[in-house]
Amino acid sequence: MTEQKLLILFFHPRFENSKSNRRLLEATGTLNNITIRDMYEIYPDYNVDVKAEQAVLLEHDVIIWQHPFYWYSCPPLMKQWLDLVLEHGWAYGKNGDQLKGKCVMNVLTAGGTFEVYQKSGRNRFTFRELLSPFDQTAFLCQMIYLPPYIVPGANKISEEELEDYAIQYTEVLNLLQSTALDTTKLNSIEYFNDLKFDTWKEGFYKTH
């Protein structure tokens, strides 16, 4: 069966100091049909090659924005990438349908836990609420915005906890590679973290 092609656009200005992101990316090495682009390595001067980035997007079915959750948003190069690459007339607007039907999602490492990212918590909003601009960007580009996957408390978790998140991440990517994935069913959950990975697979495939 043909697999979907996954693209991980990784944005981290201090990757050398990120234990959590390094382990997540290492875990993806066991999988096929995945392209990983370290965007700060490619564009240290922020001079994004728009046409090259658009060409890469067209070659893939699922786009993953992997990044630390900086000030409730993304690192600056990612914002630059969004502003330049998702052009009017190409990604959205009149005749802008080049990304129509592709899936996209955020994979975050965050300093705070789910407990502080809620109405009664210190940050007052949930991760999903704060990710609304990315959700709306996907909507404008006629893309399918999938539930985010989050490593909370990333700078404090144990090696064992991090390993569990890395394994779970590979399970998420395995699921996304399937052409039989039912995105409508998948969007019934709020976060990929909510999946029970010993029983989840059967529920998110299309039935004929």
Please tell me about this protein's structure:
The chain is an alpha/beta fold. Helix content is 32%, strand content 14%. It has a single domain, classed as 3-Layer(aba) Sandwich (Rossmann fold), CATH 3.40.50.360. Strands 1, 2, 3, 4, 5 and 6 form a 6-stranded parallel β-sheet that branches. α4 (76-85) links the parallel β3 (62-68) and β4. α1 (19-27) crosses α7 (159-176). The longest helix has 18 residues, at 159-176.
Topology (SSEs and partners):
Blueprint: E1 6-10, H1 19-27, E2 34-38, H2 39-42, H3 50-58, E3 62-68, H4 76-85, E4 103-109, H5 127-130, H6 132-140, E5 144-145, E6 149-151, H7 159-176, H8 183-186
Keywords for this structure?
208 residues, alpha/beta, Rossmann fold, six-stranded parallel sheet, 8 helices, 6 strands, 32% helix, 14% strand, globular
Give a summary of the structure in a few sentences.
By secondary structure, the chain is of the alpha/beta class. It is built from eight helices and six strands.
Strand content bin: 5-15%
Secondary structure tally, helices = 8
Taken in chain order, the helices and strands follow as EHEHHEHEHHEEHH
Radius of gyration: 17 Å
CATH topology: Rossmann fold
